[in-house]
Fold:
Amino acid sequence: RFAGTGVLGASYTDGRAALEGSFGTPYGIAVDAAGAVYVADDDCAIRRIGSDGAMRLYAGLPGLCANPPDGSVPKDARFGRLRGLTFDAAGNLFATDISYHKVWRIGADGVVRTFAGTGLPGTSTGALPAFQTPLNTPLSVAVAADNTVYIADSGNNRILRIGADNRSINY
Structure:
């Protein structure tokens, strides 16, 4: 066991040893360049487990779900139900949100922005800017070495590719 008590819905205390920490229902996991582990939780938060073994809130607030405005700082942002996580080479964290049908980008600069999705479920067939591309239940996200972002747009049964021009291409 690396983190969590194994008890669903146990109360969360920031800074507690990871083995004593709690989750709503953990889904996505990503590791940053320094080796810290990030966990996307169904309780609308992202937790970070550092080299000291402590679990701390990185973004969102457990149990307080909402659609954050672009420009929020991670700890003030309120997310929906989070699933997939990944980092790009620059240290930006991407998180999929099935409640608001978005992929969030938490920049290395500490700012939360919509990367893809409009906030409402939908689909499109053209190459639109990523933030104008409707998604439907995005479950997973990955970033290639060339910074191309791939999104598993599960409700639309497709994989999207977002290139350097920040336009979506359906696969």
Remarks:
- The longest strand covers residues 26-31.
- The CA atoms of residues 63 and 102 lie 19 Å apart.
- The chain has no helices and twelve strands.
